[in-house]
């Protein structure tokens, strides 16, 4: 964070606190540990997406940040001010945060203008009117000021909700599945509008979504939650390309898992070899293989078989059964049509980046009681020695790239 001096000196570095600091936050409901010691910071102007499967604790985290739920443990600090902690709990209306929920929660008996101005009672009449006009211009609804909520489309209602939440200039905006009630096309459109409003106002935001595509598109960073804990936090690219475990890999996109070995800084797998300079030597690993990572050539001597195909419009998604019995998916242009049952040679796609390697089983692997559990990969033989079984997935230490 920088600021300029009155003498026009170069900006000086200041110690402005993060917009939000969350430390070791916990919440239990009866036997359910809904949130289990999570922590993160939110920088000024940053959009953080909280993503995870249903029931992993996303809404509970957001509600605690808003002050609507009191944590059992931990600390919430907003712009340097502790609002939850050992010394107590600050009421929602005194936190200076804005909230946008899935259901727009507009007052049905108030006009758009009155809805947006609702939280501005402290301002004089003319300043209030000016602020409402400014907010409606921001969400491009100036012409709808006199309408009532039932006279708006779903997307317009959500933009009014956003304008209302931003009107008091909150220090942080909290959004809980704000687009869930919109259909797909509108959703993308409203999402883009909301992000550009957040960017234009410089408002830091925590966004809850169960949709990994939305998180990848929206977030400066993503926090993946699982069973109330932080599974991984990082940039969208980091999370997608370097997941720490199977759960994150599979949650953030289509993923298959192939056993592999690292020998002399080369990873060997049934899809071929790739350099892996950072991998520990002679280490049994799993490869995270996404459909765009896999190519194939039709060949009567190929050892893989097309097991199935799903038409996805722009592309076809093929299921390939490799010689070992392992199954990987391959996304190909819709112009290429290969019949089910055809023999092919499968390989890494050209220009495929270094393969992502992860340790394969517990604690990063699936749990038996986990609804997100994934099948264990079939044992494979390496590309270099088809008669030798590759080591199975390792239960060893943490993941690596
Ligand atoms: P998500 O938003 O990720 O779907 P939630 O935060 O809503 O998850 O819920 C996390 C867990 O806490 C779930 O098991 C849910 O049933 C439970 N839970 C949430 N709110 C309450 C509540 N008010 N009373 C009891 N259990 C709750």
Pick out its properties:
alpha+beta, 6-stranded mixed beta sheet, disordered N terminus, binds adenosine-5'-diphosphate
Please summarize what this structure is.
The chain contains 8 helices and 23 strands. It is an alpha+beta fold and 401 residues long.
Sequence-ordered SSE layout with sheet pairings:
Elements: E1 2-3, E2 12-13, E3 20-29, E4 32-42, E5 47-51, H1 58-66, E6 73-78, E7 81-85, E8 88-89, E9 97-100, H2 112-117, H3 125-138, H4 154-166, E10 172-176, H5 184-201, E11 205-209, H6 212-218, E12 221-226, E13 229-234, H7 236-241, H8 246-251, E14 256-263, E15 266-269, E16 272-275, E17 283-289, E18 294-298, E19 304-311, E20 315-321, E21 327-333, E22 343-348, E23 356-358
Parallel strand pairs: 5-11, 5-12, 9-10, 10-11
Antiparallel strand pairs: 1-2, 3-4, 3-6, 6-7, 7-8, 12-13, 14-15, 14-17, 15-16, 17-23, 18-22, 19-20, 19-22, 20-21
Bound molecules: adenosine-5'-diphosphate.
State Rg: 25 Å
Helical segment tally? 8
Major sheet summary line: 6 strands, mixed
SS class = alpha+beta
Oligomer: single chain
Mean pLDDT value: 83
Question: Which descriptor suits the 3D outline?
Answer: globular
Strand order in the largest sheet: 9-10-11-5-12-13
Q: What is the share of helical residues?
A: 10-25%
- How far apart the termini lie comes to 32 Å
The portion of residues forming beta strands comes to: 25-35%
Stretches where pLDDT falls below 50 for ≥5 residues?
1-12, 360-401
The unique ligands bound to this protein are: adenosine-5'-diphosphate
Strands, total number? 23
């Amino acid at each position: 964070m920088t600021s300029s001096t009155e003498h026009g000196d170069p900006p000086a570095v200041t110690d402005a606190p993060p917009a939000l600091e969350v430390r070791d936050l916990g919440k239990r409901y009866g036997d359910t540990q809904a949130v289990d010691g999570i922590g993160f910071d939110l920088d000024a102007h940053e959009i953080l997406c909280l993503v995870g499967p249903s029931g992993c604790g996303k809404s509970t985290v957001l509600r605690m940040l808003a002050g609507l739920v009191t944590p059992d443990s931990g600390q919430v600090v907003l712009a340097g001010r502790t609002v939850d902690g050992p010394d107590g709990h600050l009421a929602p209306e005194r936190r200076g945060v804005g909230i946008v929920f899935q259901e727009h929660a507009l007052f049905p008996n108030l006009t758009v203008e009155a809805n947006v101005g609702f939280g501005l009672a402290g301002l004089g009449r003319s300043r209030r009117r000016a602020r409402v006009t400014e907010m409606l211009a921001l969400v491009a609804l100036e012409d709808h000021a006199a309408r009532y909520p039932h006279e708006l489309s779903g997307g317009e209602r959500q933009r009014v909700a956003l304008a209302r939440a931003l009107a008091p200039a909150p220090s942080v905006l909290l959004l809980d599945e704000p687009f869930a009630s919109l259909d797909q096309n509108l959703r993308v459109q409203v999402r883009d509008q909301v992000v550009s409003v957040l960017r234009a106002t410089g408002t830091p935001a925590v966004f809850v979504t169960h949709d990994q595509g939305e998180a990848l598109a929206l977030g400066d960073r993503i926090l993946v939650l699982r069973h109330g804990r932080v599974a991984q936090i990082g940039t969208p690219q980091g999370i997608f390309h370097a997941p720490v475990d199977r759960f994150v890999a599979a949650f953030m996109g289509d993923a298959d898992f192939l056993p592999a070995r690292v020998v002399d800084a080369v990873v060997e797998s049934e899809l071929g070899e790739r350099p892996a300079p950072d991998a520990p030597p002679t280490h049994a690993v799993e490869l995270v293989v996404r459909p765009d990572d896999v190519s194939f050539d039709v060949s009567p001597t190929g050892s893989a078989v097309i097991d199935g195909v799903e038409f996805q419009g722009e592309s076809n998604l093929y299921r390939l059964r490799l010689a070992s019995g392992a199954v990987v998916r391959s996304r190909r242009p819709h112009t290429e049509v290969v019949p089910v049952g055809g023999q092919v040679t499968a390989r890494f796609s050209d220009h495929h980046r270094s393969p992502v390697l992860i340790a394969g089983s517990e604690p990063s692997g699936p749990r038996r009681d986990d609804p997100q559990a994934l099948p264990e990969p079939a044992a494979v033989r390496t590309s270099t020695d088809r008669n030798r079984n590759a080591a199975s997935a390792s239960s060893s230490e943490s993941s690596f790239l």
